[in-house]
Every structure is written in structure tokens, then in C-alpha cells.
Amino acid sequence: MARFIIFRLLHTVLILFGVSIVVFGLIHLIPGNPLDILLPPEAPKEVVDRLKVEFGFDRPLYEQYLAWLWRVLSGNLGTSVFTGLGVTHELLNALGNTLVLALPAAVLGFTLGTVFGTVSAFNYGRWPDKFFSVLTILGLSMPHYWLAIVLVVVFAVIWNILPAAGMGSGGGWPTSWDDVRYLILPVITLSMIPMGVIGRMVRSTVLEILSHEFPTALRAKGLRGRRILFHVLKNAAPPALAVMGLQLGYLLGGSILVETVFNWPGSGQFMNLAIFRRDIPVLQGTVVVIASFFVFINLLVDVLQALIDPRMRR
Amino acid sequence: MAEITAAAGAPQFDEAQEAREFEPRGYWATVGARLRRDRTTMAVGLIMVLIIALAVFAPWVATHDPLQGSVLRRLKPIGTPGFFLGTDETGRDIWSRLVYGGRLSLICGITPVLGATCLGGFLGLLAGIGGRLINTLIMRVVDVFYAFPSVLLAIAICGVLGAGIGNTLLSLTVVFTPPMVRVTESLTTQVRSRDFVEAARASAAPMLAIIRQQVLPNVLGGMLVYATSLVSISIILSAGLSFLGLGVTPPHPEWGLMLNALRQAIFVSPVVAALPGVAIVITSLCFNLLSDGLRSAMDIKLPS
Questions:
Q1: By the 8 A CB rule, do A63 and A53 touch?
Q2: A266/B152 Cα distance (integer angstroms)
Q3: Which of B144, B256, B289 sits opposite A137 (nearest CB)?
Q4: Angstrom distance (rounded) from CA A255 to CA A237
């Protein structure tokens, strides 16, 4: 096990190195000088030259990259060219707000998905299977930004029982029922995709496991439904965990559309603002941090999988 | 020699199954027969043909100019004479815009997947067939791209390159290529260890011939199933980019962009504002169901 973890850690370091190159390369996709988009074309030559030196754009690419990498590794993501504030602090705040949405959405989506998938598989071909299959495929096929609008129309505009947007007082984790009300619609919206993905995945995995001989053997041994279910789910857990890890990562990085609709001050909105202000340090910082989160979640899932299933410890 | 290659050249059904079947049929004929019996998939196919036909023949199906608005008829409700799906915030006919919008939305949904299938399929085959070094090189780069949540990567690339349909197509192709490489590589590795490939190799068939005759026909089905499900995601994502203002630029009709523009009007005419989303849901649902139908007809298990 120790060997597996060390090997996996080394792999993670390599991936993170690749991630840093991609993120750094991202700004050089822009034709011309990165400063051109920040400064008006009539900016005096001396100012441009001075800023070039200040941002380090006059040095060779690999030097710029190493300097940037060193800064990021020491926890400094630079300063926003628009607000002049440190990116690290603002980003951590925003990520915290995103977590307030992502974690409940993940819990809700994973629970519903697992239940729907299991019920579907155990009732293969009968009406519960058909019903839940339609539900899960709808969860996948619905653009969540559209569902967000529909939910706002129904619950905030027509019935007027839930707030349409915003985060309530303060920010951070909700402390009162009033804060929780702001959470309900975005969390439901965000849980749809994990629900669909996990539901379909659990259904096919459980079906596959049920086609083996051991559930029949368990039944022959005299085990009742619930005990058999336990054995089957234990076998379905490792692949399901892998998909759940990916989905949690998507929730952290992909809620940008939902955050826009609900005007939620999370990392997605932070990034959206950065894009429209052409604020490259903020954009770079957000992408690199979220991708690193994603890599670490995958590492965690791999280790968890190996703990449950010894066959995974290659 | 030639005989062995010819026998191995039709690997899609093994002999045992052929013997069991009363009437021997080719693989694709079997798949076709299964598809025809699958009522859901047939219905889905019919709806898809309809959607594509509406988009292609938009100039004949549309009742108004999709770009021509009028202040006098802003935000008319559904069922208004002459504008049976209502009008948008600048008085343009929703039905006509939906039909014309289908063109851009379908193009944005299908083109990146086509690109990713060609590029990713090529790289995946190469990684699966080529030696260990090539495999490691390609797959580690793919691993790096897997470290980005797909929505985040698409938005970041579009954000850097700026709005526009070309950049949307480019960013989505970049996003969909790594998963396509992974699927193709794992399908190829599975096929490569099968007996008929070994036989072809033992008969000294040239590498290209083995790829073309043995490997490719057995990998294409899985790629097709996966690509179909990717189109569904691609339609949602590209509309999402337009929704954020990073994709198709106004005033062109596109479903995501229409959704964004009509969002300001949800308090006035909520039902009309939701219509472009309905179009996205139906189209994306169709591609998902088609992928499911193809998968069960071809009896393919995709690596996750």
C-alpha cells in the first residue's frame, strides 16, 4: 500500500507540473503581447516598456514561466491588474463560497444517484427502472443554466417562496434558515448532473455485478435481500467512487454558469468577471488552483479505491 | 497466407455465433436489425431527422426574418396570431429564431466532436498500436488535460481567445480530444490482444493493413457510441458558452444566446423565456438516447 501511495504521489507531482505548463501557456495563446489587451492603443511607449519590465514580459518565456511557477508554489498568485488586490486572498474567499454550494449538491446528487441506480438495477425492465432511467437521462440532458432559470421562474417569480439570487447575509456557511433558503435552488440545480451520471453508472455497475454468480450463491446460502444488497453495493463502490470524485471536481470548477444565474459570489463568478475584465493573473490563478484541487481529489479517490479493493493496488 | 488474412479480415462475428444464428448475417446487418426492433431509438432517430431538417430548411420553415425586430411587438406571449411561439425582447419571432438557431447550435454541437473524434481517434489508435514510448508520451499528456474540469477548460480557453464561433469550436475540440484519446486507446488495446490480430501479425500482414482491416472496424463502433454521447454534452456546453457571452455573438440566433437575452424577460413572459432551453433539452436528450440505443444494439461496453 505504501508503495502504491508513493507511486501515485509522484504521478500527481508530474501531472501538476503539466497543469502549470498548460495554464502558463494559456495566456500566450493570445496573439501579440499580453499587455496589448490591457492598455489602450494610444498608451505612450515609455509606459508600455516600463510595464513590460515590471510584469517581466521582456524576459524569455522559460524565465517568465519559472518565475511564475516559483511565485505560485510559494502561495502568491499575483495581483489583479484590475483591482490591484492580491489574487490568493480573494480566490480563497470565492472558493469557500463555491464549496458552500458544491458540497451539499454533491451529497444530494450522489445520494439520489446511488438510490435511483440501485433501485433501477434491482427492478430491471420494470416500471421503477423505466421511471428512474428517464429521470437520470434527463438530469444529463438538461443544461443546468436553463434549469436554474426555470426554477427561479417557478419558485421565485410565480410562487415567490424562495429568493431568486444572491447569498443572503454575510457569506460563508449559512447560519440561519434565511441563509439556507438562498441555497435551495442552486443546490438542486447543481445536483442534477451528478445525480444523472452516478445514477446511470450505478445502474449499469450493479446490473453487471448481479450477472455474476456470487449474488445467486448468497441467495442460495439463505441471505435476505438487504444483506445481498450490501454485498453488491460493496462491489459497486470502487468504480462509483471514482466517478464521484470526478463529479465533485466538476462541481468545484464547473458551477460558473449556475453561479452566474444565481449571482453567487463563488469562484465561477470570480473567473467570469476576470474574463470580461481581461484580468489574466486572476484567470490564471483560478484555473491553476481549481485544477490542483481536482488533481488532489482524484488522488484521494485512488487511495480510497485501493483501500476498499486490494486489486487496485497495482 | 492470403487466405489467413482474408479469414481474419472479417473479425466482427466469431464462428460460434455464426453457427448459432439460423441465418448468417454480417455484424452491421445484425446491428441494423436490432436497431429497427428498438422502438425508442427509432422514435428518437425520427425526431432527430426532424430537428436537423428544420435547421437545414430554416429559410422555408421560418415564418419571419430571424433578425428583424419591432418595438411594437416586443415580448408577445405564445399563441399571438402570426407569432405562434411569441416574440423576444426586441420583437423578433421566436419560432423563426429557434429554427435558424438550430443551425448554429447543431454546428457548435457536432463540429467539435467530429474534430475531436478524428484527432483523438488518431492519437488513441497510435497510442494503442505504437510501442510503449509512444503510448506513455500520448497518454501522459492526456492525463494532464484530464486534470481540468471540462467546463472550466472550455471557458478558460474561450475567455483568453475572446468570443466568437471559431474560438468556441476550437476550445470544445481541445476539451473533447483527451477523453476521445482515452476511449480509443483502451478500445484499441483490447482489440490488439485478440487472436485475429495475432493471426494477422503472424502472417506478416503490413501494420497499416492490420490497422485498417482488423483494428479499426472493431474500434469504430465504440468510438461512434462515445462520440454520440459527446455531442449531447457539446450542445449544452457550446450553448453555455454563448449564454456567458463567450460563444456566438449577437444578433445571430443561437439557443444559448437567446436564453441569455430572454433571461431579462423572465418576469414578463416566463414561458417564452424558457423555450430556447426546451430546444436544447430535446436535442441533447435525443443524442443521449441515440448513444444508448447504439450501445445496446452494438453490445458495446465502453471503458469508463
A1: no
A2: 14
A3: B289
A4: 26
Dist. CA A200–CA A138, nearest whole Å? 11
Contact B155 A275 (CB under 8 A): yes
CA–CA dist B290, B115 (Å, integer): 20
Residue in B152, B273, B304 closest to A287 by CB: B152
Name the residue among B264, B239, B256, B255 with its Cα closest to residue B98. B255
Cα angle for residues B115, B119, B123 (degrees, 5° grid):
160
Task: Look at chain B and count its residues.
Answer: 304
Q: Could you tell me how many helices (H) and strands (E) chain A has, helices first?
A: 12, 0
Tell me which chain A residues have a C-beta less than 8 angstroms from the C-beta of B285. Answer: 137-138, 141
| B114-159 confidence digits (pLDDT tens) | 999 999 999 999 998 888 899 889 998 998 988 888 888 898 888 8
On the question of pLDDT at B2 being above 80, the answer is: no
Question: Assign residue B92 a region: left if phi > 0, alpha if psi is -120 to 50, beta otherwise?
Answer: beta
CB B228 within 8 A of CB B294: yes
Q: Which residues pair with B93 in a beta bridge?
A: B87
Instruction: Tell me if B290 is assigned to some domain.
Output: yes
Across the interface, do A149 and B161 touch by the CB < 8 Å criterion?
no
Which residues on adjacent β-strands are paired with residue B83?
Answer: B80
The range of the structural domain enclosing residue B274 comes to: 47-65+105-298
What count of CB pairs under 8 Å joins A to B? 136
B144 to chain A nearest CA, in Å?
5
C-beta atoms of A254 and B144 within 8 A: no
Read off φ and ψ for residue A259, nearest 5 degrees. -65, -35
Amino acid at site B156: A
The 3-state DSSP composition of chain A as helix, strand, coil percent (nearest 5) reads: 75, 0, 25
Residues of chain B with C-beta less than 8 angstroms from the C-beta of A291: 147-149, 152
ipTM, two decimals: 0.86
User: Which residue type, as a one-letter code, is found at position B140?
Assistant: R
Contact A143 B240 (CB under 8 A): yes
In a domain, residue B71? The reply is no
Cross-chain residue pair B259–A149, CB shorter than 8 Å = yes
Rounded CA-CA distance A198/A221 in Å is 31
- Give the nearest chain B residue to A30 (CA atoms): B161
SS3 A12: helix
Looking at the domain assignment, is residue B70 inside a domain? no
State yes or no: pLDDT of B10 exceeds 50.
no
pLDDT surpasses 90 at A311: no
Q: How far is CA A237 from CA A122, A299, B8, in A?
A: 16, 16, 39
Could you report the per-residue pLDDT of A69-127, keeping only the tens digit for each? Answer: 888 888 877 777 777 777 888 888 888 888 888 999 999 999 999 999 999 998 888 99
What total number of domains does chain B contain?
1
Which domain CATH number covers B193? Answer: 1.10.3720.10
Q: Which residue has the cell 423572465?
A: B266
Using CA atoms in the order A290, A293, A298, A304, what is the torsion angle rounded to 10 degrees? -150
Identify whether B84 is part of a domain.
Answer: no
Contacts of residue B225, Cβ cutoff 8 Å, sequence gap at least 6:
B291, B294, B295, B298, B300, B302
Measured CA to CA, the distance from residue B122 to residue B133 in angstroms comes to 16
Cβ proximity of A198 and A240 under 8 Å: yes
